[in-house]
Amino acid sequence: MLTPAFTAQAQNYPSRPVRMIVTVPPGGAADLVARVMAQKLGDSMGQTFVVDNRGGGGGQIAAETVAKASPDGYTVLLGSITTHGIGPHMYSKLPYDPVKDFAPIALYATMPMLMVANAQLPVKNVPELIALAKAKPNSISFASSGSGGAPHLVGELFKSVTGAPIQHVPYKGSAPGAADVAGGQVQLMFDALAPHLPHLKSGRTKVLAAISPARLPIAPDAPTMTELGYPKIAASIWYGLMAPAATPRAIIMKLNAASNRALALADVKERLAAGGIDAAGGSPEDFTKFIRDEMAKWGPVVKASGARAD
Prior knowledge:
By secondary structure, the protein is α/β, with parallel strands linked by helices. 41% of the residues lie in helices and 20% in strands. The model has no long low-confidence stretch (mean pLDDT 91).
């Protein structure tokens, strides 16, 4: 039962700036989603929403910060497939409970994934890449946004399903990883489109395959992993807003309503689409079910792959 003071607090929310904590450094898709939505939430709710980038630890640093924050709506998390889908299965111990410690607010965005390679890598397709990796073991490396994230796990899945001996190189976020793929310091990355778009447009990288269910408009000639005979290598990255578990329902619903208003705006959809991101939305209950389904889906996949992040 809420105290009168808590009820009044919920009615007056927000009366001061709100921190939106993001699991990665500036740059990349998560940061883009956070900054677009923070601006619109601020406009809609009459208070500043400050994006606070807390990269590292496969999202654990950011998620733990929010899990242990006061449940008053002033510290929220841009959660993801890393913190609430794959990560819980990749680590032997987490500093937070992905279900019990959070109150889901709204699913913000989903993104298809692709397999990107440095343009100078002497392969035209995935079968040639696998053959090269096997002919020269450990000569090919793949970047990720950090250990435990979707780009890492999909790379590990690719290794376990195809038998290609490629080496993992973790970065602090997708943007620096994408830059090094373009520069040739590493050869591959399994990731969402946004951080790779400028490098694809400049011709410094190329798409070898879509990891999404369908081919991608940016690379219509690149087959899906399913078409190539690897249906188990399939994933989409997603982001959504969450609060600490005991946050009052009235605050959750205010944030949900403002989020859905923002996600319905044409300019928000356009800004996200320019980065290869699809705007989502829905109720807190929809997002809660989505998270539970994601965690149930990835458990067996992670176990079968043998991939670990610690």
